[in-house]
Amino acid sequence: MSFIADKQTLEDLNLLGRFKPNSIYNLFCKIKTTGGDRLLERMFQQPLIDPAAINKRSATFRYFQERQLSFPFTNERFKLAENYLIMGGGTGLSVILKKKLNAFLNDDAYEKLRNGLAAAIDVLLAFRTFLQQLTDFADANAWRKILSQLSWLDNAHDLSIMTVARYDRQLRHTLRAEMETLLEGIYQLDVYIAVSDVARQRGFHYATALPAFPAMFHSTALRHPALNAGISNPVALSEESNVIFLTGANMAGKSTLMKSIGIAVYLAHMGFPVAAADMKFSVRDGLYSSINVPDNLNLGYSHFYAEVLRVKQVAAEVAAGKNLLVIFDELFKGTNVKDAYDATLAVTAAFARYHHCFFIISTHIIEVGHALASNPSLQFCYLPTLLEGTIPRYTYKLEEGITNDRHGMTIIENERILALLEG
């Protein structure tokens, strides 16, 4: 079983994509090796759901962050060694034949092999030295054991044709599987160092994963990881209070806050550092969001119908017993105010009964909040707008209650839209 996060959710939260602006993947992708890049991508695509495995990975990142280690290989030298080691292994005889071809036919195959071997030796020596800094890192023991079989590394200065043949056979034939293990170890170190460097530079923290029950989420200061000067807010959910009903004006920060919570939960299930202090969470089966639901003209779906289908999809998963975090940003904004009021009221009340799940629901229809005020499962929060004269200012600080802000016409007047139309 794996953590659930569908395409819509991944796009809503901008989680994946090396070249997507401000994607969370791009935020962490300071990787030096192609193998490390592949490993990072796998981690993003396969969040964990076992608390022990999550906490173990978090502890590993914390370990490297505390030691502030640098990746010990240059890109060019490592790439040459990597290409050499992953090529099919030859025999001593084939090396001698390449040497003869090099001498008589001006073939450069032997020189390429020799240069690749020399780069591999440099990388293995650097790796062995680097591992001296990881004396208390359990995973390093297997790597040290492999390197101990290469006693000739310290004396591999004179690469004559016979030593090239012997070393080449050992690295790319006899110990081929072991060399693959070492490369995988280097890719892991690449990810550990890169991700922990990002955590240190951006002031991220490490969450603690707990069993699925009792369901809980807690952070004293949560913000969006892609914002350098993002405002932090306390957020807490429990089985008794499993719905955050969020109100506030446009531009007050509702969508950013909701995305921040979703991203923190997703990264925490990866065992990655999060932009959330003192975070503890019970593991979830998955995460669903409805923030930027597109219409589908090819299927004849209006925006409203697409919203309805999205809510139906999530409702089926919740009713099936999945332990989920669900984020709905402005439910049913694709229909008229009366229908949106009735639908938001009914759906929010229905979801609130599923205490094994957490829901964050935002709306501009503040009357829904007043109608739900007696429901003990809901906590009412808003992001305020302050008017300084006629200029709105947004604090981005979460407050308890339901907003009374109605400044839409003020903003329209500030932009002089009506004056433009009046000529």
From TrEMBL:
GO terms for molecular function: ATP binding; ATP-dependent DNA damage sensor activity; mismatched DNA binding. Keywords: ATP-binding, DNA-binding, Nucleotide-binding. Residues 241-419 form the DNA mismatch repair proteins mutS family domain. GO terms for biological process: mismatch repair. Pfam families: MutS_V. PANTHER family: DNA MISMATCH REPAIR PROTEIN MSH1, MITOCHONDRIAL, DNA MISMATCH REPAIR PROTEIN MUTS FAMILY MEMBER. This is DNA mismatch repair protein MutS domain protein. It comes from Chitinophaga pinensis (strain ATCC 43595 / DSM 2588 / LMG 13176 / NBRC 15968 / NCIMB 11800 / UQM 2034).
